[in-house]
Amino acid sequence: xxxxxxxxxxxxxxxxxxxxxxxxxxxxxxxxxxxxxxxxxxxxxxxxxxxxxxxxxxxxxxxxxxxxxxxxxxxxxxxxxxxxxxxxxxxxxxxxxxxxxxxxxxxxxxxxxxxxxxxxxxxxxxxxxxxxxxxxxxxxxxxxxxxxxxxxxxxxxxxxxxxxxxxxxxxxxxxxxxxxxxxxxxxxxxxxxxxxxxxxxxxxxxxxxxxxxxxxxxxxxxxxxxxxxxxxxxxxxxxxxxxxxxxxxxxxxxxxxxxxxxxxxxxxxxxxxxxxxxxxxxxxxxxxxxxxxxxxxxxxxxxxxxxxxxxxxxxxxxxxxxxxxxxxxxxxxxxxxxxxxxxxxxxxxxxxxxxxxxxxxxxxxxxxxxxxxxxxxxxxxxxxxxxxxxxxxxxxxxxxxxxxxxxxxxxxxxxxxxxxxxxxxxxxxxxxxx
Length: 434
Fold this sequence. Notes:
The chain has helices at 2-57, 67-86, 93-115, 119-203, 222-228, 237-242, 249-262, 307-353, 357-372, 408-417, 419-424; strands at 207-212, 217-220, 234-236, 266-273, 279-290, 296-305, 376-383, 388-395, 400-407.
């Protein structure tokens, strides 16, 4: 991260230097153009005066002046004036006035060429020349003022850029100082985090491993070597495969291959054969690491011993199987009991619906005893008028029938006094009033 900021600062510094160089170049260009324009106007004014002198004094043979040379100088000065005015803002009032005077002088000169030199044309040409000279003075002064303004503006821009560059440089220095402190703090935090991670790994009995695809070797830390029962810090993948249980080797290879090809988390459990011959369940968790171009550069992960968990899971599965078996048996018993109860209920209803109650009850007792395979069955009939109970007993396989009469009040007192004893012997009394 720090190197990125350093490179960014270097790039920004280069850009600032390039900006300063560009501004310096622009300033030289503007100043050079302005000076060239001033020189052109100065030379045009000289040519204007010299040309006018030539054409006005060319008629005197004693004078070394030539009319054609004078006209050429006047044409040259007019073109210089027009070229200089074209470089400036045409909307400016002084520039517009100067261009107007140049055009007027050009027209006056054209008329003079047509009509020839007369006192009137000489006067008009002189007046036009003087007007052009005054506008040229004004234009020259304005151009010099504009040149000074441009120079001052470029100087201000240059100062602003230098100030900005200085502030940027100070900001970069401050940022780099802060980044350096941040990097040191991050380094200290990283060392502390690594220490905490090492403590956590040791507390959880977690070993770390690293596979280097370039050398096809696996590196283990101390805990990892202890879990695998090896002493060497590095060994090949083939040596690692040799320690995996043969039944778990295909699934281990498939999980590792899928993690590498799909760049997903590797999480697999397998049995590991220790040098002493014992088998331990190990769980490996890791993730492939790739470079910026997507190529595999490493595989990092942790390993833990899950033998105790596997044993607990096996015990839980056994208990669940036993519980399911008991539930099935109990369900079968409850179904049988329900069927017997339904049969007894039907037998009782048939007995009550019969015309001869005593014979019907005897038949009902016989069927009930056979149906539920009971040692003894009793059916009671209560007479409300005599408050007595007729009791019919079924005495086992011999079908011995006994009929007795019992006082109801005495029976209820005996039942109330012996509820606990009846409950312990699982004797249930059912009474129905009809």
